[in-house]
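agent> fetching stored inputs for the pyridoxal-5'-phosphate docking request
agent> found them:
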Amino acid sequence: MPVVSVPYAFNEEDLYVDLRSIIGHSLFLKCEGFNFAGSIKLKAALEMVEAAERDGVLTPESILVESSSGNLGVALSMIAASKGYRFLCVTDSRGNLSTRMMMEALGSQVHMMAGQEANGGFLGARIEYVRALCASDDRYVWLSQYTNQGNWKAHYRTTAPEIARQFPQLDVLFVGAGTTGTLMGCARYFREWHRPVRIVAVDSVGSVSFGGVPGRRMIPGLGMSMRPPLLDESYVDEVIHVAEADTVRTCHRLARRGFLFGGSTGTVVSGATDWLTRHDAREVMAVAIGPDLGERYLDTIYQTNWLQDLYGEDVLDSDEVAAGSWAATPAPPPRWGRRLDPADRQPQGQPAPSAPGS
Ligand SMILES: Cc1ncc(COP(=O)(O)O)c(C=O)c1O
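agent> prediction call returned; pasting tokens
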């Protein structure tokens, strides 16, 4: 029985959804949304805050400030509230209303950039604002998720070994790319592992992270309007770009089977499904990382008017959304009243490589 006295002490690390009955391919989705911050960004937030505390950068007088499209902001709000720091989140108009309200409920201040005020789009505008704040008052401490090494180290220490323990025969890992903290932490870990793992990055169409043409992106989380400073492409085997309309369709497809996931998860599952369809993947042990859950997207991805305004009247008319069309096999019977026991899981596996420099 987990009992906690601080909200960041709990994070479900061993929950996977077997998506075979929904997407028609074997794919284990690691669910990272089951913690009090509701997303994978809790891991990066905690690692960065604790490193800043250890380094003496963060003191009781400090005011944390960060640019975030929302989920890191919620995680930092939660940690700041628990540890007694003040926190200002600089976000933009693409963020979800519920995410903003959550940060305010946790006692944080939220500054919303009204538009793409400067060159570099929303992100450039947010970063300029944070820099100006830090220059104006030295109580501000900017963790800078885009450059902070703690961002990828969090996943090297936690996410990747969690997967390695449960899937010792892993062949391919699908990871969404935002700041690329998750991607780089996992890719570095598996590069040192006992067998080759294909690392497939999943990005949104319109993101320039891996080059490509900048375009409109309305779903926060994945994708960047600049090259991510943490990204080292030599660790990435392949990149898949997913159009937002496909993200939306995948989210609805999963929701029709009872799994209400967020936009990042929909993007990763869409990209992974496409990859598995293109490859002869019957014997492939594949895992995808699902960073978020769906409640924060009720007024966007799960709202018909928002969807139709942005992606057209027919966005959900596709056969792909209708229950059954993707499913190669019927849904398994429910296991009422039974907890997943260890026998249902993949065999436990290999020893983990140690963290770099440790
Ligand atoms: C919900 C969600 N998923 C995925 C990501 C991207 O993860 P990373 O920044 O580690 O690349 C973010 C980034 O903010 C996010 O909020």
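agent> quick read of the result: Residues 39-41, 69, 71-72, 176-183, 221-222, 262, 264, 291-292 surround pyridoxal-5'-phosphate (CB under 6 Å).
agent> awaiting further instructions
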